[in-house]
Amino acid sequence: MEQLFAFIAQSRNFILFVLLEVLCFYFIINTNNYWSASFFNTSNRYAAQMLAWSNTAHEYTSLRQVNADLAAENLRLRTQLTQRQQERSPSSPPLYKADSVFATRFTFTVGKVINNTTTYANNYLTIDKGTADGIQPGMGVISPTGIVGRVRFCKEHFSVVTSILHSEFRVSANLTKAGEIGTARWLGADPTKMTLLDISRYKPVNKGDSVVTSDQNSVFPPGILIGRVRTIGLQANQTFHDLTIDLSTNFGNLSYVYIVQNRLATEQEQIEKQVDSEK
User: Fold this and answer.
1) Which of 38, 101, 123, 156 could disulfide-link 117, Cβ–Cβ 3.0 to 4.6 Å?
2) What is the pTM of this model?
3) Is residue 219 classed exposed, middle or buried when 0-12, 13-18 and 19+ CB atoms within 10 A define those classes?
4) Per the database record, which ranges form the Rod shape-determining protein MreC beta-barrel core domain (predicted)?
């Protein structure tokens, strides 16, 4: 306390000067309309700037929670959309309607990508969901924008996913406009492109046509976007188009994914194996 009083005593002239300056400034602002308006506008401008910086910092620090909330909301909407599509697709006859168990066979779990490769011939992802969350090998994985891959290995809290950017990955694909089913695969060069095989040369194909997952698989719900036609080629004496598609999923910034469970997959596989055994 004595040191404080000593400091005040030593600096009394400077402190008095500052107080007088503040008092003069106060009288100028309150007795002069021009300076009063100038001070008000200037202070508001700086206050607004400080508030904007504060809001920006707050929004940045809360991005993780915002992304998680958006992923959860997308999960709910994805579930509803898939159920509606399974109840009755646009191509189904007027009298057709799927039973409720079949229509709700696909369920989704949100996962976060914690590792991802795109530069190898065989690429994989690691996600933060495992057997403790009901994840099992063989389940499909999609993103908000399209197909991602298929679960290969699982531990209690982690799973490794075979990316569609894998030399052995194949997926049944539907060229929607032509109504033709083919096979999409990655050739190992560009992580933004795939090829579409087995599309008849006699089917009309245009650049920009959508390619989606077909009904003929038990891993992915039908109608999940794979990509759009980029180039159309035709080799001599070939019966199929040579098609390249731009992938709809950007693997360079993949953050959240949805793991797809087909609750009827086992039943479907069992009955199909029974048919195969009788051949």
Assistant:
1) 123
2) 0.69
3) buried
4) 113-261
